[in-house]
Automatic annotation (TrEMBL):
BP terms from Gene Ontology: DNA recombination; DNA repair; SOS response
GO molecular function, one term: ATP-dependent DNA damage sensor activity
UniProt protein name: Protein RecA
Domain RecA family profile: 35-125
Gene3D superfamilies tied to this protein: P-loop containing nucleotide triphosphate hydrolases
InterPro entries associated with the record: DNA_recomb/repair_RecA (IPR013765), P-loop_NTPase (IPR027417), RecA-like_N (IPR049428), RecA_ATP-bd (IPR020588)
Protein family membership: Belongs to the RecA family.
Record's GO cellular component terms: cytosol
Length: 125
C-alpha cells in the first residue's frame, strides 16, 4: 500500500512540474537554492525587517496597506533601486493613480518603467 501511495505522489509531482515548470513544487530536503539575491528597498530599516536585505530579485512583490500608508512611496523606491542596478521594473497600478512627476522625484526613470493600470487585480497579473 505504501508503494502505491509513493507512486501516486511521484506521478502527481511530475504532473505539477510538467504543468507549471521545474521548481514549482519540491521537497524541502532536496536542498533547493536557498541563497536569495536581493535588491535593497531604499530603506535600511525595511531591508532589515524583510530579513534578507531587501526584496527578492526576479519576484513579484506586492505592497499592501490602508489608504495613505505610504504604499506608493515604498513601491516607487523599489522601482528606482531596481533601475539603478540596471534592471527592468513593472509597476501594476491597481489604483490608477501613478503620478509620473512624483515618481521622477523619487528617482524612477519613467521612460523605462513598464506600467499596467488594470481594471482588476486579476487582470494585472
Amino acid at each position: 500500500m505504501a508503494d502505491q501511495r509513493k507512486v501516486a505522489l511521484d506521478k502527481a509531482l511530475k504532473n505539477i512540474e510538467k504543468e507549471f515548470g521545474k521548481g514549482s513544487i519540491m521537497r524541502m530536503g532536496d536542498k533547493a537554492d536557498t541563497q536569495i539575491s536581493t535588491i535593497p528597498s531604499g530603506s535600511l530599516a525595511l531591508d532589515d525587517a524583510l530579513g534578507v536585505g531587501g526584496y527578492p530579485r526576479g519576484r513579484i512583490v506586492e505592497i499592501y496597506g490602508p489608504e495613505s500608508s505610504g504604499k506608493t512611496t515604498v513601491a516607487l523606491h523599489a522601482v528606482a533601486e531596481v533601475q539603478k542596478r540596471g534592471g527592468t521594473a513593472a509597476y501594476i497600478d491597481a489604483e490608477n493613480a501613478l503620478d509620473p512627476v512624483y515618481a521622477t522625484h523619487l528617482g524612477v526613470n519613467i521612460d523605462d518603467l513598464l506600467l499596467s493600470q488594470p481594471d482588476t487585480g486579476e487582470q494585472g497579473l
